[in-house]
Specification:
The structure is a single chain. Strands 1, 2, 3, 4, 5, 6, 7, 10 and 11 form a nine-stranded antiparallel sheet that branches. The chain has helices at about 15-25, 75-85, 110-120; strands at about 1-5, 40-45, 55-60, 60-65, 65-70, 85-90, 95-105, 130, 135, 150-165, 170-175. It is built from three helices and eleven strands; from the N terminus they run βαββββαββαββββ. The protein has about 180 residues and is of the alpha+beta class. The chain has a single domain (about 1-175), classed as Electron Transport, Fmn-binding Protein, Chain A (Pnp Oxidase, Chain A). The protein is globular, with a radius of gyration of 17 Å.
């Protein structure tokens, strides 16, 4: 992995990817009622057919070194990803702001889908595997997810950029 110091101009250090990953591994609460600085919204940017960006809030999880999310195939983000899997996901934590750019691929492997459904359920959303075993369902989801079934996506990072929001500061881009 190559790291580029984006704050060298100010004499700030290169950020350590291991500390960024460690913070993400600790979890980023997104549920209603988690409120204040400990509630974090993930934003997903996909590419519309005309090349313009489409940005929407999503419920993403950081698992095994990458972000995972879900959506229906009929949603704009689902259609955009089917046509062009390039995307970016961003989140702000207390310690840093992060953007991860890469490709999102639909994952339909039943054991992986089941594992992700279990993780979302542990976060408070009653997700479960649907009858096909290849997608998830629940009594509700975000309106932007469309109707069930919802398919699971894994974002494979190409680059990540973090801006430290605490002392000593810094900004770094990593190429994976």
């Amino acid at each position: 992995m190559d790291a580029t110091n984006l704050a060298d101009l100010y004499g700030l250090p290169v950020l350590d990817w291991a500390s960024i990953q460690s913070r993400l591994d600790a979890g980023i609460a997104q549920g209603p009622g988690s409120g204040g600085p400990s509630r974090h919204t993930c934003w997903l940017t996909t590419i519309n057919q005309d090349g313009s960006p489409h940005l929407t809030g999503i419920g993403a999880l950081w698992v095994d070194g990458t972000f995972w999310f879900e959506t229906g195939e009929g949603t704009r983000k689902g259609k955009n990803l089917a046509r062009d899997p390039r995307c970016a996901l961003s989140v702000a934590t207390n310690e840093f702001d992060l953007v991860v750019e890469g490709t999102a691929n639909q994952i339909t492997d039943p054991p992986t889908v089941a594992a992700m459904a279990t993780r979302w359920a542990a976060e408070g959303w009653p997700a479960r595997v649907d009858d096909t075993g290849r997608a998830i369902t629940a009594e509700f989801s975000a309106p932007s997810a469309g109707p069930p079934p919802w398919f699971v996506y894994r974002l494979t990072p190409g680059t990540a950029t973090a801006l430290a929001t605490v002392e000593p500061g810094g900004a770094t881009r990593w190429q994976f």
